[in-house]
């Protein structure tokens, strides 16, 4: 059985809250994105697309906060007992997650911008289009956005799989670093 995680070996409370909030929003938005084409009638589909875009913008805003807190608070060091390749894989994996948490919503924003329609945050704050309207570019941007989403899903599966492996199998990196329970 794992011993309780010392407070210094944990992520800060602000980073843990941002992690949980962003994980919930990202997983929900990936599910919503996969469901968009099957939603009927068109009015419900339009509302679902609006929610999908809103959540993407919220994730982007939370990412800025998360990067600030990560810079301010840092992250607990990985155990020296981990092989160097696993520490390197963890750093690369986290880097990919941060990159994708930015690239996925930005690619969606670019895709929306190519339509020429205004993007409204919470229904009232008009967000600037990142590019000029370009119907010919829309399919390419859609493909980019969808491809990045699938890549994010794969990296998330690897991240969760690695966390569970280290917690339950290797017992060398407890989930208590990120979550509040012990053991």
- Low-pLDDT parts are none
Number of helices: 4
Gyration radius (Cα, Å) is: 19 Å
Roughly what percent helix?
55-70%
The total domain count is 1
The second-level CATH architecture is: Up-down Bundle
Biggest sheet strand order reads 1-2
CATH class: Mainly Alpha
By secondary-structure content and strand pairing, the structural class works out as mainly alpha
Strand percentage lies at under 5%
The number of strands is 2
Sum up the overall morphology in one term. elongated
| Through-space gap between termini | 7 Å
Biggest beta-sheet profile = 2 strands, antiparallel
Query: Mean pLDDT score, rounded?
Result: 90
Helix and strand element order: HHHEEH
Protein name: Cytochrome b
Family: Belongs to the cytochrome b561 family.
Cofactor: heme b
Subcellular location: Cell membrane
């Amino acid at each position: 059985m794992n011993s309780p995680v010392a407070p210094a070996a944990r992520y800060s409370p602000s980073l843990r809250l941002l992690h949980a909030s962003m994980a919930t929003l990202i997983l929900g938005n990936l599910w919503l994105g996969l469901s968009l084409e099957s939603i009927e009638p068109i009015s419900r589909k339009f509302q679902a697309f609006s929610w999908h875009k809103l959540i993407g913008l919220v994730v982007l805003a939370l990412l800025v906060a998360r990067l600030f807190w990560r810079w301010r608070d840092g992250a607990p060091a990985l155990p020296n007992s981990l092989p160097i390749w696993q520490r390197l894989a963890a750093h690369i994996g986290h880097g990919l997650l941060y990159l994708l948490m930015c690239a996925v919503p930005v690619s969606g924003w670019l895709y929306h911008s190519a339509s020429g329609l205004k993007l409204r945050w919470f229904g009232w704050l008009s967000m600037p289009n990142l590019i000029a309207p370009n119907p010919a570019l829309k399919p390419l941007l859609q493909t980019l956005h969808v491809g990045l989403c699938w890549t994010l899903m794969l990296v998330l599966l690897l991240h969760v799989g690695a966390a569970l492996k280290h917690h339950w199998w290797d017992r060398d990196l407890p989930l208590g670093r990120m979550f509040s329970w012990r053991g």
